[in-house]
Description:
476 residues; alpha+beta; 5-stranded mixed sheet; 6 helices; 23 strands; 25% strand
Amino acid sequence: xxxxxxxxxxxxxxLASMHPGLATQTHPGAVCARPSVEPGLGLACPTPxxxxxxxxxxxxxxxxxxxxxLGHLGPTDDFPKAxxxxxTNPGEEFHGHIIYARAADKPNRYSSRLxxxxxxxxxxxxxxxxxxxxxxxxxxxxxxxxxxDPVVTHVELPTPFAQTDFATIVGDLRAAGYASLxxxxxxxxxxxxxxxGAAGVGTVLPDDRPTPENPNNLGSHxxxxxxxxxxxxxxxxxxxxxxxxxxxxxGYSSPNGSGGSNGQGGGMHCNDGLDIMCYPDGGALSNYRxxxxxxxxxxxxxxxxxxxxxxxxxxxLATHWNLGSPFNRFVSGCSYRTGVLTAGNGSGVSGVDVDxxxxxxxxxxxxxxxxxxxxxxxxxxxxxxxxxxxxVPDEYAGPVGTATSDYLAYSAFMLTLPRVPAxxxxxxxxxxxxxxxxxxxxxxxxxxxxxxxxxxTKARILLNAGAQALYTFNxx
Length: 476
């Protein structure tokens, strides 16, 4: 997609007194000519799926709107606790980045809240792992860590608390450099802004394609929970917003979806009862049923709308975007491998040669670099996904890997052309071996996904000529 094709923007003119710093800004992805200030959100344009929130740097993010106090979630202090999968190289790995944010004119409670925030993260991951265990699978969030503990970055936001809304929180974070395409920012905001009247808010894009190119599968997404503790249902609220950032719920196509916006937010949820992503949101298909899964709170009641690590062939989540899919770069399954492959001269990298058998099997005598991994016995016969993005996606990323207005304008473009790929996909393949015997390559099936052979002892990831790729290989 050329940048010229993304010229869908509009010049936004508003009163400076209403939103200082945004007057006369050009927003490349604005979908309306006359945005308005939405309480708790900030300057925004209505969309068929909620709102496009315009930021001070000329970029924008998308959300269905504010999530009210989610009373049906109840206390979540009984969630099982489990440490997430740690990421230690944020420049080359997709991950969630936990942030403690506060307005500069509010007291600094970072030290007193740190332990509880980490507890909430463990509750969320424990619940995710518990849901996956129903399918004899293990799924964990991938979270930035240091010394084995989730990093919780303290960010003091310059916007006064009385003027804080979702747009200022995200805008201030982006201005501070938190805009990587490899990171989803999961924010615990200290306090509830005066105009929010909600439990939290998260970004989400309307794209239900079951492919790694789905833009929900990239970073520079933001989930904000407004100050709930681990004993006040904080895990349920934050898990709800984190779910949005990963693409839940595609409410206009999922079996129990609440549809799109009613013109005033809403939509992008589900209608099932005790479900972390469901409530009566007023969406176009909203038909909330409180009696569904009423025995226990689920992350996807009946596992048919947004999360299932082992969906039945032909089912909705086998053919649409699924947070339990091995293509989801922000969760780890039975085995998760990632790294950068760089085009070379056919000799491979790090001492790994690309042999003729692999080159012949992949249909290319030009395969230029590879990584070889052992396949754990417990992962054989399970679903895998291999995907890649340019290691430095020049068309969509700035010099330090931050999302630019071109990429975010593309997100707006998705509203009108939802089937256009988000990023050019480097040509990566995987071949499976039993010892030194080549079993098969994924390209033989025409796709970089499928099932790990039952006898596979190792997998070799290959990058064909002409690219540098950041790849993820996930077995769920």
